[in-house]
Amino acid sequence: MMPLDDLASRIRRSREIVVFTGAGISTESGIPDFRSPGGIWTRYQPVTFQEYVSSEAARVQAWKRRLESHRAYRDAKPNLGHYFVHSLDQRGSLIGVITQNVDGLHGLAGLADEKIVELHGTQRKIICLSCDRFYEPDEIMKGLRGDFESPKCEACGGILKAATVSFGQAMPQDAMRRAQAWTEQARIFMVMGSSLQVQPAASFPLIAKRNGALLAIINREPTPLDEYADFTYTGAIGDFCRNFNALIADG
């Protein structure tokens, strides 16, 4: 297994890095990993896209869940992990970041939109499923009080939904194409904070490895793909970034 200082040396020389991020990069910003014990997804049955579209009760349930997490998303700030990814771009090393997250923190850390693929959409916008009009979340959330009905588009009366990919909803094809293209270009593919258990997104590290990229996996827990990696770090992402930045500075 490659030592950290060798990885740092490779990254210093590379101009073709892709970073793949999951929920673990954002927990240090106060956004919970909803799959962990006690998380929202362990206390609610998922609402599929088909249920959301067809059932008012399902929509209300989904918005109640959104109310629980809205403050965490709204108030979250980027952490050292997000700024580490941005620093790779500032060095001219980053092709782009492919993220499973919907929190928008890579953009808030300064990364340009064209350098980000949000595979699962974003919680920072609400969309009308009929006319594609966007709304700011605070604008909608302030109306969800008491025994509320699910919000509707003020322009066309259509169903409003977080601009995220729900269970049963097709993955955005443009995002998947861009992610595939970046993965195939990568000479270094870094996974940060993903359990690598959600498909089809978790296939990208293997695609990169099969194309000859160096595969680095940084995550709090072991992942199913650790055996394929050239470098693994099991622990907090903030600690990894501090250690790595010290090596880069020394180099």
Task: Please outline what is shown here.
The chain has 251 residues and is an alpha/beta fold.
What does this structure look like?
By secondary structure, the protein is of the alpha/beta class. It has two domains: 1-31 and 76-120 and 171-251, 3-Layer(aba) Sandwich (Rossmann fold), CATH 3.40.50; 33-73 and 122-164, SIR2/SIRT2 'Small Domain'. It is 37% helix and 18% strand. The protein has ten helices and nine strands. It has helices at 4-13, 40-43, 49-54, 56-75, 80-90, 105-108, 137-141, 173-185, 204-210, 237-250; strands spanning 17-21, 94-99, 116-118, 121-128, 134-135, 160-164, 188-192, 214-219, 231-234. A six-stranded parallel sheet has the order 3-2-1-7-8-9, sandwiched between helices. Helix 8 packs parallel to helix 9. The protein is elongated and about 55 Å long. The protein starts with a helix and ends with a helix. The model has no long low-confidence stretch (mean pLDDT 92).
List its salient traits.
9 strands; 2 domains; 10 helices; Rossmann fold; six-stranded parallel beta sheet; alpha/beta; about 35% helix
List the helices and strands and how they pair.
Layout: H1 4-13, E1 17-21, H2 40-43, H3 49-54, H4 56-75, H5 80-90, E2 94-99, H6 105-108, E3 116-118, E4 121-128, E5 134-135, H7 137-141, E6 160-164, H8 173-185, E7 188-192, H9 204-210, E8 214-219, E9 231-234, H10 237-250
Parallel strand pairs: 1-2, 1-7, 2-3, 7-8, 8-9
Antiparallel strand pairs: 4-5, 4-6
Helix pairs in contact: 8-9
Query: What does the radius of gyration come to?
Result: 19 Å
Number of helices: 10
Q: Structural class per helix/strand content? A: alpha/beta
In CATH, the homologous superfamily of the largest domain goes by the name: TPP-binding domain
Per DSSP E runs of 2 or more residues, the count of β-strands stands at 9
Helix content: 25-40%
| Regions with little confidence, pLDDT below 50 for 5+ residues | none
